[in-house]
């Protein structure tokens, strides 16, 4: 079983930066494909970014492209999301998610508990 714990959220002003972290355990981290999602109360979860096992292949939602950077440190079993030029519309609970890269399913069965990011205008 994979356990994921996010940290780094908080209250910032528009234009500020934040770095989220997600510590993984329970499985060899380098076998996991990872992603960040976010959710606003009353709305569906929104994909933010994903990264392959080696970290060399990343993909972003259009809404964050050029402002957010997803990365991973396989030696530290940690996933990151560097968020720059934050906007009020980035306010949400951010979740990291994982799936076993070798399996054919593209869904993410493992999720963290989330960390709140609030951006004031």
> What percentage of the residues does DSSP assign to strands (E)?
over 45%
What's the total helix number? Answer: 0
Which structural category do the helix and sheet elements fall into? mainly beta
Average predicted confidence as pLDDT: 96
End-to-end distance, in Å?
Answer: 40 Å
Helix content: under 10%
Low-confidence stretches: none
Return Rg in Å: 14 Å
Number of strands: 11
Query: What's the overall geometry?
Result: globular
Q: Could you give the order of the helices and strands? A: EEEEEEEEEEE
For the biggest sheet, the summary is: 7 strands, mixed
Structure, explained:
This protein has strands at residues 3-7, 10-13, 18-25, 32-39, 46-51, 58-60, 68-73, 78-83, 92-100, 110-111, 115-120. By secondary structure, it is mainly beta. Strands 2, 4, 5, 6, 9, 10 and 11 form a seven-stranded mixed beta sheet that branches. Strand 7 (68-73) and strand 8 (78-83) form a beta hairpin. The chain is globular. The mean pLDDT is 96.
Q: Which features does this protein show?
A:
single chain; 121 residues; mainly beta; 7-stranded mixed sheet
């Amino acid at each position: 079983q994979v356990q994921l714990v996010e940290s780094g959220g908080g209250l910032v002003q528009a234009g500020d930066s934040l770095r989220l972290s997600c510590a993984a355990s329970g499985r060899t981290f380098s076998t996991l494909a990872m992603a960040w999602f976010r959710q606003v109360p009353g709305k569906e979860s929104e994909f933010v970014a994903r990264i392959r096992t080696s970290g060399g292949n990343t993909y972003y939602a259009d809404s964050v492209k050029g402002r957010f950077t997803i990365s991973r440190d396989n030696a530290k079993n940690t996933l990151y999301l560097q968020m720059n030029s934050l906007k009020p519309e980035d306010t949400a609970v951010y979740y990291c998610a994982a799936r076993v890269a070798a399996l054919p399913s593209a869904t993410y069965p493992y999720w963290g508990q989330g960390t709140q990011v609030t951006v004031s205008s």
